[in-house]
Amino acid sequence: MALSAPRFRNLLIVIKQTAFEEYSQLKLRGSAPKAVRWARLESRYNKHKACVTDLISTLKSQHGDINFSCVNRVDLDRQHLYDVDLVVAVGGDGTVLSCGHFLDNGSIPLVGINSDPSDVNEKKVDGKMDERRSHGALCMFTANNLADGMAKVLRGGGTLSSRTRIQCTVKSAFSETRLVPALNDLLVSHPVPASVSRFRMGWLTPLRENGMSSFSEMAAPVRDGGGDGLGKRVFEDADPDMFRPRENTTRYNNQIYEIKRSFNAWSSGLWISTATGSSAAMAAAGGRTMDIHSPQLQYLVREHLMEKNTPQDIQDRAKGMLNSKSNLHLRWNSQKGRIFIDGSHLLHNLDLGDEVIVNNQAPDLHLFMEEQDPRLHTKNIL
Fold it and tell me: For the chain, what is the radius of gyration of the CA atoms?
């Protein structure tokens, strides 16, 4: 039977680098940890490589009219996205998240394959039997049903989910830097976990606009793969007065804002999550799991240090939701700080006095997911 015309013709396959490969490189340099369980890691590596081999074989034998290229996750660069119309992440949730950081304009869809899923027997026990496996919550299918899953995606099936992401901008003395959008969450904290994270948090209300182009117009690439890196430096070496805020005001997105309802926080940092990430670190920190349809963001001051006489309204402001019109503002008051984007691998350093603006205005990520998942927010974008 003849195949239907392919929905996508140019694929980029992004392949996870396994822990076995990473530790093997350390072993060659004599710096691998002594407690590494080599047999377990090699078993995981072999299953992952078998999935990659099966994927390539399936594409060649069953989808010969489709072009594809492969790249290791650690080598992924924006140049690899040229002329690509679908990115395939082979590994787990971490690989999906890493790919999403390069798809910052939301023009290229993404599908994840869990290359080493848990088997039936492992799912019957109370605890995880192997800490190296990925949960695969962001993956549409696994190595076990790879051929059917790819056929669905490439020939017109599958469910394309539109996922809200976090937009974060850091404003320093002479620059504004727009960070890559986060699919799961952001953590803003001191680099040392035992140190207090000091910041002033408030909400921005516009005062006036000028005739300049908007921040998004100046910074956003027209297609995924544009730009020159993971963080976009918009203004640099400019007039300092352009960035010097007046009392209780700040300039962002070429507009002056008043900072309202602000309060000082001594804490272990600030969590901000999407609906996608709300069931992960945010839920563990005391937040709530959100409906996957929600475009809102959730924030929570982590381990907030409050005196007994702290007003109730300030206590209430320490956690809540951000809607589409909200701009959350932080003034960083510790000597050093960091913003962790979707985990620990991607981060941005903060200095005393830096300002951080957070909203949900990043372009959505278009992610293929399992069709039977009733929580999905779907859009027909193809």
Answer: 22
Whether the Cβ atoms of residue 370 and residue 159 lie closer than 8 Å to each other: yes
> Do 174 and 315 lie in a common domain?
yes
- DSSP-assigned letters across all residues of 146-206: HHHHHHHHHTT-SEEEEE--BEEEEE-SS-EEEPPPBSSEEEEE-SSTTSPEEEEEEEEEE
Scan for tokens 């929905």, then name that residue.
7
**Furthest-apart CA atoms within the chain: distance in Å:** 75
Torsion angle of the four alpha carbons 332, 182, 376, 320, in this order, in degrees rounded to the nearest 10: 0
Rounded to whole angstroms, how far apart are CA atoms 180 and 78? 13
Residues 6+ apart with CB under 8 A from 166: 181, 182, 185, 186, 272, 273, 274, 297, 358, 359, 360, 362
For residues 106 and 110, what is the distance between their CA atoms, to the nearest angstrom? 9
Q: Record the tokens describing residue 19, joined without a space.
A: 């822990």
Is 256 in the same domain as 238? yes
| pTM of the shown model | 0.85
Residues 355 and 207 in one domain: yes
Which pLDDT score is estimated for 248?
87
pLDDT in tens, 203-233: 999 886 554 434 444 444 456 776 555 566 5
Same domain assignment for residues 173 and 123? no
pLDDT at position 67 is 96
Q: How many CB atoms lie within 10 A of CB 244?
A: 10
Which of 274, 310, 270, 311 is CA-nearest to residue 291? 274
- pLDDT tens digits for range 318-364: 999 999 989 999 999 999 999 999 999 999 999 999 999 999 999 99
Q: Are 367 and 87 spatial neighbours (Cβ–Cβ below 8 Å)? A: no
